[in-house]
Specification:
The complex is a heterodimer of chains A (112) and B (108).
Chain A lengths: L3 E4 L2 E4 L5 E7 L5 E7 L5 E8 L5 E2 L10 E5 L2 E6 L8 E9 L2 E4 L3 E5 L1
Parallel strand pairs in A: 2-11
Antiparallel strand pairs in A: 1-3, 3-8, 4-5, 4-9, 5-6, 7-8, 9-10, 9-11
Chain B lengths: L3 E4 L2 E5 L4 E7 L5 E7 L5 E6 L3 E5 L2 E6 L4 E6 L8 E8 L6 E2 L3 E6 L1
Parallel strand pairs in B: 2-11
Antiparallel strand pairs in B: 1-3, 3-8, 4-5, 4-9, 6-7, 7-8, 9-10, 9-11
Classes of the chains: A mainly beta (112), B mainly beta (108).
């Protein structure tokens, strides 16, 4: 299994500001992922973050809005930039150990 | 891209009842996982089951990869089983893609 921690667990932010979410995993992994879960919805993949390369973004997500860092094999950050109320969601970090994908507890973001 | 459909979207049960949740997917996959998201938002791994049958206590799952579907069985349901059940799949080298989930409410 994998242990994944995220900080902050929740935050309330003003529109126009930015928030950086940190994700720490307990073992070295090649692939890390960031997902968004809007209220009452399923999980949507934002991007795949491999160490040593640029993140790969899914359709509808761009680097300017969601810059990602992956400085080493156990850590990644996601920044939500220039926030609007539509960015209010749970943001989840995920990694893969073997063939199984694991998820962190999520960061609950409310943008006013 | 691959499509994942779950049914039913909502399910209401009395405590002690059994239920079957279904997941259909549109293409061959390397991985299929079932998750339970509890009312506090925590996402819990239930099964990694790209094919075959697995059981864990009152829960069991079966995936028929050749027919592109998976079933999650919950027996003798309890109120703590309430929440959203997600099926997610991926192909080699890609991230999990999630279905829309089945929301289960178990009342005592």
């Amino acid at each position: 299994s994998a242990v994944i921690s995220q900080k902050p667990s929740r935050d309330i932010c003003q529109r126009g500001t930015s928030l950086t979410i940190q994700c720490q995993v307990d073992s070295q992994v090649t692939m890390m992922f960031w997902y968004r879960q809007q209220p009452g919805q399923s999980l949507t993949l934002i991007a795949t973050a491999n160490q040593g390369s640029e993140a790969t973004y899914e359709s509808g997500f761009v680097i300017d809005k969601f810059p990602i860092s992956r400085p080493n094999l156990t850590f990644s950050t996601l920044t939500v930039s220039n926030m609007s109320p539509e960015d209010s969601s749970i943001y989840l970090c995920s990694d893969r150990v073997g063939e199984t994908q694991y998820f962190g507890p999520g960061t609950r973001l409310l943008v006013l | 891209g691959i499509q994942v459909e779950q049914s039913p979207p909502d399910l209401i049960l009395q405590e002690g009842a059994n239920s079957t949740l279904r997941c259909n997917f549109s293409d061959s996959v390397n991985n299929l996982q079932w998750f339970h998201q509890n009312p506090w938002g925590q996402l819990i791994n239930l099964f990694y089951i790209p094919s075959g049958t697995k059981q864990n206590g009152r829960l069991s799952a079966t995936t028929v990869a050749t027919e592109r579907y998976s079933l999650l069985y919950i027996s003798s349901s309890q109120t703590t089983d309430s929440g959203v059940y997600f099926c997610a799949v991926n192909q080699a080298g890609t991230a999990l893609i999630f279905g829309k989930g089945t929301t289960l409410s178990v009342s005592s």
